[in-house]
From TrEMBL:
The keyword Nucleotide-binding applies. It comes from Streptomyces rubiginosohelvolus. This is ATP-binding cassette domain-containing protein. It is found in: Cell membrane. Its main location: membrane. It comes from the Bacteria.
Length: 333
């Protein structure tokens, strides 16, 4: 599927939002390996964009480039309205980055980490203390504030990391795999934090391997594979591009199973389980026609389940195992 720029307006939005991140044809290679091979993106301000891809697909590389940590080989890139090539300082002032390369210093306390960040942003001392206290409170870190960050749990470290990012009041935040390694409760807390930021108008660029996370949070999702955007769209749009929706009928009476199977020619049979799988988009109309048909034939199914494709199906369909991109890093920086 070709890489393409699709309109990325927010759900339900009436006016197009200004663009927070725009990329046209951006490329990055390591040696002769094209990690990013002509990527186009347009992310409206105030939306959540998720970049999905298998290990080694280039997600972190994309975040590092867009957050000015490394440079692209080519392409036109702008973040927060500033050109990455000519005005990286203004980009840095507009963004926050958290993720796999966390800024948290374990040797000092959470509060000291925050105050250090305030200093880096040249906030006056009193303002730095005020912002620190507010963010520690907001991220439920008041009790732990005076303890070394190395003693924090994974969830607390991530919360501290995001709190540190917010000290400078960024309008665009890059979150590189923000919930990797977190337990389900911490993951949900993090999702709540991300939703709050978006409600305040912050743009979130998220990379994740958790499809559920992209489904929960993202207005638009792009799937990165072999250096290209294999598909981009809302979660629902992506789910529609893969086949796999079906209705499953289960029987306990072998006679009923056989008569249903003989008439439903297109159904995939599972003779051992006495189950029939009928391709379907799961719509009300299709379900009604299956039920009407069962009634008309006086066939009694003992169970009916509807399976609509989920993002897992999309991911597997678009990122095949044969060309898995994960390679050891040759000269990690
Ligand atoms: N500094 C580097 N030198 C050489 N190769 C690199 C370097 N950084 C990344 N790569 C390679 O670029 C590819 C993409 O790596 P990247 O870390 O961006 O992937 P990713 O999608 O973030 O993966 P993961 O989900 O595992 O974090 C990999 O093949 C990796 O080995």
């Amino acid at each position: 599927m070709p890489s393409s720029v699709m309109p990325t307006s927010r759900k339900g939005g009436s006016r197009p939002s200004p663009t927070a991140v725009s990329a046209v044809g951006f490329c990055k290679s390591y040696g002769d390996k094209a990690v990013l091979d002509g990527i186009d993106l347009r992310i409206p301000a105030g939306s959540v964009f998720a970049l999905l891809g298998p290990n080694g697909a280039g997600k972190t590389t994309a975040v590092k480039i867009l957050s000015t940590l490394i440079t692209a080989d080519s392409g036109e890139l702008s973040v927060g309205g500033h050109d990455l090539a000519t005005d990286p300082q203004s980009v840095r002032a507009a963004i926050g980055v958290t993720g796999q390369f966390s800024a948290v210093d374990g040797l000092i306390t959470g509060e000291e980490n925050m105050l250090l960040m305030a200093d880096l942003h040249h906030l006056p001392k009193a303002e730095g203390r005020r912002v620190t206290a507010e963010l520690l409170e907001r991220f439920d870190l008041v009790d732990a504030a005076k303890k070394p960050a190395s003693t924090y749990s994974g969830g607390m470290k991530r919360r501290l990391d995001i709190a540190m990012t917010l000290v400078g009041g960024p309008r665009i935040i890059f979150l590189d795999e923000p919930t990797t390694g977190l337990d389900p409760r911490s993951r949900h807390t993090m999702w709540g934090i991300i939703r709050e930021l978006v409600a305040e108008g912050v743009t979130v660029f998220l990379t994740t391997q958790h499809l559920e996370e992209a489904d929960e949070l993202a207005d638009r999702i792009a799937v990165l594979n072999n250096g290209k955007i294999a598909a981009e769209g809302s979660a629902d749009e992506l789910k529609r591009i893969v086949p796999g929706g079906h209705v499953k009928l289960r029987f306990t009476d072998p006679g009923a199973y056989r008569s249903a199977a003989s008439v439903l020619g297109e159904a995939v049979r599972d003779d051992d389980a006495l189950a029939l799988q009928i391709p379907s988009d799961g719509s009300q109309r299709e379900l009604r026609s299956i039920l009407d048909w069962l009634d008309a034939k006086s066939v009694e199914a003992d169970g009916l389940t509807v399976h609509t494709p989920d993002l897992d199906d999309v991911f597997f369909a678009l990122t095949g195992p044969a060309d898995a991109p994960d390679q050891p890093k040759e000269n990690a920086r």
